[in-house]
Amino acid sequence: MSSNDLKLKAHLLRRAGFGASPKELDQVADKSYEDIVEDLLHPDKAEEINMDYIKRYNPELRYPDTHPLHAGFWIWRMINTKKPLEEKIALFWHHVFATAWYKGEHTPSQIEQIETFRKNGLSNIKQILNDLAKDPAMNYWLDNCENHSDQPNENWGRELLELFSMGVGNYSEEDIKQASRAFTGWTFEQPLPLYPYGNYETKFVFDKSDHDFGEKTFLGRTGDFNGEDIIDIICEERATALFICRHLYNFFVEDEPQIPAWNIEPPRNPEAIDQMIDVLMSNDGEMLPLLRFMFNSEFFKDSMYKKVKNPCELIAGTLKLTGTYGIMPKQGEEVGKLYGIGSVMGQALMNPPTVEGWHTGHEWIDGGTLNERVNFAVNQFNDLSVPGLSDIISRLGDHVKSSELLDKCLEIIGPFELGKQAYDALNEYAEAVGDLDLTNDASIELNNEYIARMVQLILSTREYQFA
Amino acid sequence: MTTVTKKDPVFVVVQLSGGNDFMNTLVPYSNKRYYDNRKFLNIAPEDVLPLDNTLGWHPEMAPFKELYDRGMVAVVQGIGYPDSNRSHFRGMDIMHTCTPNEISTVGWLGSVLEQLDPGKENPLTGVNFGVGLPRAMSKAGVPVTSVSNLDEYGLMSGLAAEDQRDKALKIFKDMYAQAIGSGPVMDYLSRTGSDVISGADLIKVAPEKYESTVEYGDSQIAKSLRDVARVHTADLGTRVFYTQQGGYDTHANQLPSQPGLFRDLSRAVNDFFADLEEHDADDNVVMLIFSEFGRRIADNGSGTDHGSGGGAYLVGKPVVGGLYSEYPSLEPDKWAKGEDLEHTIDFRGIYGTVLEQWMGLEASPVVYGNFEQIHPFKNS
User: Are A467 and A307 in contact (CB under 8 A)?
Assistant: First the structure.
């Protein structure tokens, strides 16, 4: 198998998942690229994650409370899942349907929302929007519980159109009002009180007595529409397909301008977006054919280094490489910490800044977050006993010439390419290190340090900041 | 600028994150309405540290009261804005961007830093202490240094051996060097990486130079303010410092946790100014202490819910101490939303006061408008 082929598979696994450890890459080495795509698209066929140990180690995880703990647990799942696209698509919808813990401070419904994205994230746009409209966390976040037949609240109706489906400029203020009326009475069951035992789960209820059954005119259609009817109409619109495809492209393929600019800035690759829209619309909003098309497309294969890693990708990808935070947690690997690490890099999971979600691309990076990103990755290899380092060393063979050290390391941990500056600077380091004899027990510690440092430096590059 | 200082004016912001309960900070202890509404969560008249015969400090704020008694604290009573937002994030966001009616990513101090250092010559013009850069300090294209631990600040700080760290940093610099044709995002990464390195290079002299007889407490806010003092006294050209004390979203834990927070805060602020005085570096420093909102007037039987109408404090030698603006009315017909303290001065007017009367900058492009100011500075 050519190195180019492996590079492409690693690219696919970084984008459709959270990267692959060298061992995980071994497992797909004999599969065709197209077959790997199919595996990713069918998480139901993959093995369930073993959560026995993590729950024993973090007994609080048995209760759906404490938001940082569960947000960190999600990152642990990103690292350990055998269904990478299931977690990745959940993260995608979380980016688009940004719902934050800070308003309701109700962790069970936040957890449930992400679980819904796992279950329905690869299904159908209509299904996904309907589930979203009935999601208690979203319902409270955008005040639909305050949307009454005699006194409509337009918050949900507006964002459904503006941020979750069609994008600004494709509907009128009147359409927002009419859509909001259709969602009156869509609320949730009041959960049991918080005290003294903590938060309880809740579920969607349709309160008939609070629903406006009158006639509505929405996007030129007239009828006694309910929320489902509004979503049906939304899903017929090309604007919705465009909006969803642009989001997918921005998340999986290449950084687009920030969402508020979308009605003035055209897509980076209009042809790709048009093709994606056609696939989505000709398959009645089904996600699988669209994702299959996207991952197999030339524009996807050509998109290396066109997307800055979001903090989850950086954290989970790096920890896959070190082999820490695994199925069997080690001392000090509390999952709640992972939430804090993401937060200081600007991605407080399940707690995005606003309903607009996170600003992505190069906006992930400022002086503070670059410092955090680089130091985080470097510090993971300060401990020479991490399993990932031994694995890298064993793959280097017995003797490594100084002229091969960088190329070999890049091949093992990427495989990926560096620009000329980084490549030259790291080769200079390799030259200073000299040829390594890894069979010599007397220099084992020093050799390990040299190799760990090389890995640390590779993880500090600008190139590593890209997914 | 009319204020006479030895050096350029320096501004230190301390954010009390979580929404501090103003009514239990500066207690209206002679007001029956206070005790009517705070049946559970009140400070008894005999426990307050009286400021005058109507208001008294929380009993844990003695070191802060001492600064007040020395005439160094201007209390801004009733700071807020119309239709206060009770969400922490949004509330804080509004205080950080000065845009209550729209979402903005332009921090007000980001705009200030841009005015102070338009050529981006000193990456230490603005320094934040804490994890994560607050939105107040961020503006696209404006470099800010954000330090979580001054003694270990900088890239590769996790590498224990200094010679190893230096070598790694040299390689980092080479790897992040600008190159023609590498694309705008790679260029942006190069610039940001270089700013972080030069900021860290400059700031590392601060801990080396610093000596003091002041012994700070071991709270996080004490550590942060000590870091501010170390960088300020090192004379590195920093004009805006930012730091925060978390934990004010006390809800049902207000009774046990607020005293500890006040104890840490008031001691840290007092120590900070003592430290500056010892270094003869207090003539040009003004501190603003604020929170994103106050708490509800009535307690809920166990704590207080998110409300509005809080208090802020301007502290420093250049300040004329005393009470400014008005304490929000406790009369029910004056309450905001029927349950909150109604603000009596807009926070943008207080920012404007600092910008125009202290920093010598024009306020309206930063706070988007002209708001009523107070006059809390000597010689202004």
Answer: yes
